[in-house]
Write a structure and sequence with these properties.
The complex is a heterodimer of chains A (about 900) and B (about 110). By secondary structure, chain A is of the alpha+beta class. Chain A contains 29 helices and 23 strands. In chain A, α1 crosses α2, α25 packs parallel to α28 and α27 runs antiparallel to α28. Chain B has one domain: Arc Repressor Mutant, subunit A (Orthogonal Bundle), CATH 1.10.10.10. Helix content of chain B is about 60%, strand content about 15%. In chain B, a hairpin with a 7-residue loop joins β2 and β3. The longest helix of chain B has 25 residues. Classes of the chains: A alpha+beta (about 900), B alpha+beta (about 110). At the A-B interface, α2 and α4 of A face α2 and α3 of B.
């Protein structure tokens, strides 16, 4: 039975009737047509002939013209034909009501359009949420724009921002007392690993040492209890009080309501909890924050041995300054005055302060950290660009859908114009529709984005989950999504709306058969959009492929040390209250115990975590002391125990390893890597040369040379490294390295229980295998590639939907032509070829354009890629292939359905 | 002028057909065609707008009726107002036709 009803209903749209009335008319008329059809068939007319006759008997144009004046009373709103009321809001409301009705009437179009937009907007929202959290709005403090970060700088070294260092406690105190530009100046340390003992458990937590006025300076208020009083930060060790973070309160203390006044042990010292920080405050650093805060007078108990006497020694740089500018004082004036004070201090304390100055930066700039900041900025910009392209594809998809629909709505629009609708009015109405679509897509996209972001964040390393900032969904994100979706609506709506409003009235009204040709120009815009889509999705796929290949080659990098059969544990025996003798016994005892455990090949200690080292400046080489400040040698310095090189499988190139005899009192020795040896003693024998470590007075003799490994990042350029024996340099916290004979994961529990046996008070939270170390080093990169991949395939998906849509639409437009061809004897395969050719031509042009763009982009990206060239044939070829296959399917489906069409039906098609 | 006659007569036809019993649109169209011996034919595109117009004026009233084994149809019945209008229209039609006849001399043919 023919579906009269939906055909009629479609035509009635332009009358703008209430849905119930429209349905009623459609039902009545279709019942009539069906009666007529039945009658004809009963009298012996063949079905198809009957169909044709009935169709001819209902001239829609007449019907609409007749109904128009009669049905006026049913209309809730003034017809489009009437002029603008002059009231902008009234017009807008009317347009909106109408738009909603139109969208409701074509649910499949509406759903596809909203979903497409939601994916595009969602991707943008997700990325923007991250950017917003880290870059735009990282500080949960009041009037953050008046806050500045204060650091020690070394103007001699051309004031590079990466050269900013913390300030010593005494200097900070002097700055605070002498300046007249800040209403308040506070200091905070970086998060220090500490051992928290609570009940019978010991855990590693991160603690920041802050001056008593820290929270007051930031202008934040406790969730519970209070922050430090000035009295609590006057005398060393006098007030062991601690403020815990919201996440720690929730996680470690089960959100206990009676948390205030409870005592905990941090590094064996009993502290009283006096307050809980507000939710979302995780310190000033945007990325990594502490679990709790203690006053600066407790610094001695928190800082590692390397930073002894933090409260008395001006050379121990511990605190980063954070200050609030006095009202009316500009940053430049504040900096000038602070520099003057710094000069005075340098004259007063030349031994520690010479060559030092002070640098001020807006806090919002400083929170990202200097090195992290650059990378994050570039990364964010890159991701925003990528998702911007995804959104463009989504937009052009919806624009194409709109164009196709505009063709179907020609009559409706012609009727409206015939009734007197002005062009502007019409464009406004059509744009309202687009903007409404954009808005609906935006609402859904906002939730997609939020969920996506949560999911992304759930993938962060669990060890630090509590310390990493949480993605913030605030007004910024909301406004961003709103603006993006409204803009999107305008973007994809404007071309189709302008085009529709140019509909030639008479022609369109006369067009009984809407589909007769002349839609070439309509197709042209769509084709251009489509070629663009294909090109952009190819670019995104290529970029994803490039980074995927890059990260794969990074995994293949040999970091220069054992990773497969390696387990490491960070231990802080000093925090368990051990004295030096006991700690040294502990190091030795631990080694002796563990080597007897089956499956363990060798054991050693080192001060550095693999891939977490950082270079220290100020290394002096004997005979080469006269260096300019700018040529200061920096080197990784690692304190190691016996057997370190065999445990880490780092080969010895020359000389010897450390031995039992390299102990305190014997001649000070070092082992250097071949990079350092070749760089500073080229063509000389490095053995028996001497060097001085940063901050040390004695010269140490080189006794061995080992191969260079990676210390900070995988695949880094070789950098100098100096190893010193543990027995000559005491350290109270070390990393235990265990080389195993089989999969280290199976050994981890044994290692853990051995440590617990030796002392249950030691926190052993952080057991890792070597493979995991590499994983963590590449975590950020992996996330990035994952995102790129997701966005690349999102783009591909959207583009193929667009391709499918446009091919299907043009097939529909050409139904008569196709029917004609087939009636004249064209075979299925030739029709299939005809349609496919059209689609594939577009795709191939798009791929060609995309390849050119990818090549250009590849060059721009080549610096950030590892182990592959800017033009990577595999990435280019692979991405093109994937795209071609998907595009072929998208073209093939409508083409096949066209070639299977019954010529009779196709010919009759209206 | 012609348009007005046609419209006026169409209204008369429909009201007459509904005088004795309610009917649905297809039935009305069919009856007009049958009883006029095929001379008068109402296009669907004019029949229904006309019905709606009469309904708007309150001369007829449509109601959806469901009968066993049949699809739902809209039956129109004449209202009291419609009957009054019908009587009036009949009268003026008779006068009109009589006048035309007298002039054209059909009676004497």
């Amino acid at each position: 039975m023919p579906d009269w009803r939906s055909k009629i209903q479609e035509r009635l749209t332009s009358l703008n009737l209430p849905p119930a009335r429209e349905a009623e008319i459609a039902e009545e008329l279709s019942a009539h047509l069906q009666d007529r059809y039945d009658e004809l068939r009963n009298s012996g007319t063949p079905d198809e002939e009957a169909y044709r006759i009935v169709t001819l008997e209902l001239p829609y144009t007449d019907l609409l013209a007749e109904l128009q004046p009669i049905e006026a009373k049913y209309r809730e709103v003034i017809p489009e034909g009437e002029a603008a009321s002059g009231h902008l809001m009234a017009d807008f409301r009317r347009d909106l009501t109408y738009a909603a009705r139109v969208l409701r009437k074509t649910p499949s179009f509406t759903i596809v359009a909203i979903l497409t937009l939601a994916l595009g907007i969602g991707a943008n929202t997700a990325v923007f949420t991250i950017v917003n959290t880290f870059l735009l709005n990282p500080l949960p403090v009041t009037s953050a724009s008046r806050m500045v970060a204060v650091n020690t700088s070394h103007p001699a070294k051309t004031g590079q921002s990466s050269d900013l260092r913390p300030i010593s406690f005494l200097n900070l105190k002097d700055y605070r007392e002498k300046n007249r530009v800040f209403s308040s100046l506070a200091g905070y340390s970086s998060p220090m690993a500490a051992t928290l003992s609570y009940g019978n458990d010991s855990h590693r937590v991160f603690v920041e040492v802050v001056t008593g006025n820290y929270f007051g300076t930031l202008g934040i208020y406790p969730l519970m209890g209070r922050f430090f009083s000035s009295e609590e930060d006057m005398k060393p060790r006098a007030y062991p009080v601690v403020v815990i973070g919201y996440a720690a309160w929730q996680g470690r203390f089960g959100a206990a309501s009676d948390i205030l006044g409870r005592t905990i042990k941090l590094n064996k010292v009993v502290f009283t909890i006096i307050g809980v920080a507000p939710k979302g405050f995780k310190g000033i650093n945007a990325v990594f924050g502490p679990d709790m805060w203690v006053p600066s007078m407790m610094a001695e108990q928190m800082l590692p041995t390397q930073q002894q006497n933090p409260l008395k020694d001006r050379a121990v740089l511990t605190f980063t300054g954070v200050a609030r500018l006095k009202p009316g004082v500009p940053l430049s004036q504040a900096e000038a005055e602070m520099k003057t004070i710094a000069n005075e201090l340098a004259q007063e304390y030349p031994e520690t302060n010479e060559g030092q100055s002070v640098a001020l930066r807006p806090l919002t700039e400083a929170v990202i950290g200097t090195n992290q900041g650059q990378g994050m900025l570039i990364g964010s910009f890159f991701l925003m660009t990528i998702v911007g392209f995804v959104l463009l594809i989504a937009c052009s998809n919806v624009a194409n859908l709109q164009l196709a629909r505009a063709a179907a709505r020609r009559q409706e629009i012609a009727v409206r114009m015939a009734l007197g609708a002005g062009r502007t009015r019409l464009v406004r109405q059509l744009l309202t529709e687009s903007v409404l679509l954009g808005f609906l897509g935006g609402v859904l996209g906002f939730f997609f984005g939020y969920e996506g972001c949560q999911f992304l964040w759930s993938l962060r390393p669990a060890e630090f989950a509590q310390n990493l900032a949480d993605p913030k969904l605030n007004a910024n994100v909301f406004v961003f999504s709103l603006v993006v979706s409204l803009f999107t609506g305008l973007l994809f709506g404007i071309a189709p709306a302008l085009r529709s409003s140019r509909t030639p009235i008479v022609e369109a009204l006369k067009e009984e058969t809407r589909t007769l040709g002349h839609s070439l120009s309509r197709i042209t815009i769509a084709n251009v959009l489509l070629v663009g889509q294909v090109a952009v999705s190819l670019v995104l796929l290529v970029v994803a492929a490039l980074f995927l290949r890059s990260i794969r080659s990074q995994y293949a990098i040999d970091p220069g040390f054992e990773t497969k059969n390696l387990a490491i544990v960070m231990l802080y025996p000093g925090q368990a209250g051990y004295d030096r003798t006991r700690i040294e016994q502990f190091y030795k005892g631990m080694r002796d115990r563990l080597v007897t455990v089956p499956g363990i090949a060798s054991v050693s200690w080192a001060s550095n975590l693999p891939m977490w080292a950082h270079a220290e400046a100020g290394l002096t080489i004997e005979g080469q002391e006269q260096r300019k400040k700018s040529e200061e040698i920096s080197s990784v310095v690692n304190t190691i125990d016996l057997d370190y090189f065999s445990t880490m499988s780092i080969p010895l190139v020359a000389g010897r390893d450390f031995s039992q005899n390299d102990r305190e009192g014997s001649a000070p020795v070092v082992i250097v890597n071949d990079t350092l040896a070749n760089r500073y003693w080229p063509n000389q024998d490095p053995l028996s040369k001497r060097l001085q470590l940063p901050g040390q007075k004695e010269f140490r003799q080189v006794v061995g040379v080992v191969k260079t490994a990676n210390y900070q990042t995988l695949g880094e350029p070789p950098q100098p490294c100096v190893y010193i024996p543990l027995r000559q340099t005491y350290s109270d916290s070390m990393v235990l390295y265990v080389k195993t004979e089989r999969d280290p994961a199976s050994i981890l529990t044994a290692v853990q229980s051995e440590i617990r046996n030796l002392d249950p008070a030691l926190a052993v939270d952080d057991l890792r295998t070597g493979t995991k170390v590499i994983d963590q080093a590449l975590w950020g990169a992996k996330m990035g590639v994952g995102l790129l991949g997701v966005f690349g395939f999102l783009a591909l998906g959207l583009a193929s939907v667009g391709l499918y849509g446009i091919v299907a639409y043009s097939v529909n437009q050409r139904r008569r032509e196709i029917g004609m061809r087939m009636a004249l004897g064209a075979g299925q395969s030739s029709v299939l070829g005809l349609i496919l050719r059209q689609g594939i031509t577009l795709v191939v042009s798009g791929v060609g354009l995309g390849l050119v763009l990818s090549t250009l982009l590849g060059r721009a990206l080549s610096k950030t890629l590892y182990g592959i060239g800017a033009i990577d044939p595999l990435s280019l070829g692979g991405a093109s292939l994937v795209l071609l296959v998907v595009a072929f399917v998208a073209c093939y489906l409508p083409a096949r359905s066209a070639s299977h069409a019954d010529p009779l039906v196709a010919l009759r098609a209206t | 002028m012609e348009h007005e006659w046609k419209k006026g007569s169409a209204e008369l036809l429909i009201l007459s057909l509904l005088e004795k019993q309610p009917r649905h649109g297809y039935d009305i169209g069919k009856l007009i065609e049958l009883r006029s011996g095929g001379v008068l034919y109402f296009h669907i595109a004019s029949l229904y707008p006309l019905l709606y117009r009469l309904e708007n004026r309150g001369w007829i009233q449509g109601r959806w009726v469901e009968k066993a084994n049949q699809r739902r149809r809209r039956y129109y019945r004449i209202t009291t107002e419609g009957q009054r209008v019908l009587a009036q229209k009949r009268l003026s039609w008779k006068e009109f036709v009589g006048a035309v006849n007298r002039i054209t001399g059909v009676e004497h043919a």
